[in-house]
Amino acid sequence: MILLEEVTKNYKSRPAIRGVSFAVERGEFVFLTGASGAGKSTLLRLLYRAELPDRGRIQVAGRDLAQLNRREVADFRRRLGVVFQDFKLLRRRTVGENVAFVLSLLDVADREQQRLVYLVLKQMGLQNRTTAYPEELSGGEQQRVSIARALVRQPDLVLADEPTGNLDPDRSHELMELFKEINYQGTTVLVATHDRSLIAAHPARTLLLERGSLVRDGWGVAS
Amino acid sequence: MGGRIVNRHTWREVRRQLRESGAAGLVAVMLVALSTAWGGGLWLVHRWLAQELLADTGAAKVVATGRTEEGVAAARSALLDRFPGITAELLAPRGVQEQLGRWFPELSPMLLSLPDSSFPTLLNVTVSASQEESVVTLLRTQQGISLVESSRTWQRHVAEVSRRFMWIGSVAAFVLLGGCCVVVLLVIRLLVLSHADEISIMRLIGAHEGAIRLPYVVCGSMLGIVGGLLGLTLLVAVVLQLRAIIPAVGLAVRLAVTLPLAGCVVGVLGATLGLAALPEEP
């Protein structure tokens, strides 16, 4: 599903990712971890093609991301569910409209949109906040709206950047259970987190980044 | 985008953008209305002049005036001797007075109260275009004639003035439409800049460039079309008022299509240029 070969990314000559290579199979659940500034978010940005690598090759779902034209990038992103660290909610739209927006891009009928939005918001415990605007929500609620938006179109691959960063421990574990559930249904899930306790509680394949380099690829938290 | 070019998402976005364009959008609409009404009015004036005043009917009118009825009658005789086939009607001062009274009914009481001597004797000659010059030359040599004017000479004067007026008016119309284009450009640019975050998020969740840009272009075209329709309404109102004075002034069906279309073109052009503010992706 994901293949990185010697990927390097620099920001103004400061290396953010250094020669990282790994592969993630379809249907896998993988944690990407490391301290703040280790390069987790940069790696995710490369994976949803918000950035292009300076060197190396990235393939997602069999497509070389550097070869995609503008339209293909949009089509590619439609197959992803991305949970952004800073939520990236459309602030002029309500919770319901934010989640429905990705469905409207696919021209899903209004009634079907309403049904899917209700189901996913119910799953996130936000069914009573449909008409609220993002600024009226707590950080945790905004995070859950962002997750709902990522999951509503049942993507092939979910990329989550610190998805539990604003959630209390109970909500965090509920969310991880949800990710496990959608992974069980066949979706590939890559979760970037610095929270080692989360990985310890939900052990899975874990990629450890340090200063932009991949230093460990193994199961669970290293002892 | 589900196959269709303009879908529910587009219309939703367009409605939102029209709402958000606010006062700036209203200014754009008003400016388009003024320019299209001006352009349309110009075209109507041009058509009216061409049909009513500058039409080539094949015959020319030559009008001569004299101080005395006898002098003008002598000139008429000389004219008919030289050009037997032409029509030359002599109008005595009383006849001229009554004719003017019929042409200007509002002034009729005042005109008819004046003494006959206030009006000249008039010779009204209808000639073919080929004879016009010779008739004018002959009448100017007659003792009893003080003034000779020909309709073709007047038409030439009117045509010249009309051409200059149309040229200046057209330049003004294009400048106004250019101004409209700039205003629409600024409206769309403001919308794009205020939506910059939103647009980058839309891209990140898979919106096509077309789906992002199209609502802005449609919004621009809507501003133009509404402006064009408003311009048409304005023009209709002016024409209806003018008809009371000049009955020959009329509207053309093609204007009902052209004005909103011109507004639409201006809107689309302005919006397309305004979208240059849209940041590119890597």
Structure write-up:
- The complex is a heterodimer of chains A (223) and B (282).
- Helices cover 35% and strands 28% of the residues of chain A.
- Chain A is an alpha/beta fold.
- Chain A folds into 2 domains: 1-79 and 158-223, P-loop containing nucleotide triphosphate hydrolases (Rossmann fold); 89-154, no CATH class.
- The longest helix of chain A is centred in the last third of the chain and has 16 residues, at 169-184.
- The mean pLDDT of chain A is 90.
- With 282 residues, chain B is an alpha+beta fold.
- Chain B has 9 helices and 4 strands; from the N terminus they run αβαβααβαβαααα.
- Chain B has helices at 8-53, 69-82, 93-103, 108-113, 132-140, 151-194, 196-204, 209-243, 253-274, and strands at 59-66, 87-91, 121-128, 145-150.
- In chain B, helix 1 runs parallel beside helix 8 and helix 6 crosses helix 7.
- The interface between A and B is medium-sized, with 29 and 23 residues.
What structural keywords apply?
heterodimer, A: 223 residues, alpha/beta, 6-stranded mixed β-sheet, 4-stranded antiparallel β-sheet, 28% strand, globular, B: 282 residues, alpha+beta, 9 helices
Multimerization status: heterodimer
Category from helices, strands and their pairing of chain B? alpha+beta
Strand order in space, largest sheet of chain A: 6-7-8-3-9-10
**Sheet with the most strands, sense and barrel status of chain B:** 4 strands, antiparallel
Order of helices and strands of chain B: HEHEHHEHEHHHH
The CATH superfamily of the largest domain in chain A is known as P-loop containing nucleotide triphosphate hydrolases
Fold-level CATH name of the largest domain in chain A: Rossmann fold
Low-confidence stretches of chain B: none
Strand tally of chain B, please?
4
CATH hierarchy class name of the largest domain in chain A: Alpha Beta
What is the C-alpha radius of gyration of chain A, as a whole number of Å?
A: 17 Å
Broad shape of chain A? globular
Helix content of chain A: 25-40%
